[in-house]
Amino acid sequence: MTAATRDVQAEARVWVADLLAAGRELSGREVGERFERSDRWGRDVLAAVRAEHAAAEMDRLPVVEPEALTAAVEVESAAAPEADGNQQVSAEGTHEVSTPDDEPEKGHPRQSGPAGHPGARLVAWLGFGFGTVISVAANVLHAWIPPEGAAEAWRPGLAPQLGAAVWPVALLLSVEVLSRVAWPAGWQWAAAKFGGVVAVAAGAAVISYGHIRDVLVHWGYGTAGAHVGPLVVDGLMIVCGFALLALSREIKPVVEAS
């Protein structure tokens, strides 16, 4: 190897080392083209610089004596019981003790009951809302059924159409109030809330059942279909309504006595 070749190679190593230290990625082709050499020559220079860098990094690593490592392990083992805040050592042995993190703060609610599926309330509301929309639509459509002997140009008034939506909307609001209000304890409150919602639900079911049945008959449904169809809507609203009530009682505040 001539002196000129050694100088070029040394210059290439310095150049490559500086770029690698700066975080630059290089290839053998780039190095070869930079110094007018072949790709293989550039790869050899890259390999040599990387090997020197790896050796230098190894030299910087501290040498840990076996005796020092053993002493460190013994010290850590001796300090372990003191660092564990959930254990207490006594003459009888080791037993668990509670920490402040394990106990709920006074005055803060704790969760009781199952958490339920994250989308359960959404699905229940979709079902109840869908049933309400169907019930409202059927009640309004019932107002458009012409009475016997009506003229050909007969049209229902605005009041009957608006009044037809009262019953399902009243049931919707009753379930919403029952599920969201934190009712006080006592039989009077229980009688008021459950008696009221039962009255609203029963009245809305009877009226809506008749309206949906009449609409289905008007559309040409048979006797069985006309009588079963309203039960589908009412059953959906009952299931979803009770689901909303159950979900509203899954998380109950439990306040610790001071």
UniProtKB/TrEMBL annotation:
One Pfam family recorded for the sequence: DUF2637
Domain of life: Bacteria
Renumbered residue ranges of the record's region Disordered: 78-117
InterPro entries linked to this entry: DUF2637
Segments passing through the bilayer: 122-145, 165-183, 190-212, 224-247
Keyword list, A-Z: Membrane, Transmembrane, Transmembrane helix
Annotated signal peptide: none
Name of the featured protein: DUF2637 domain-containing protein
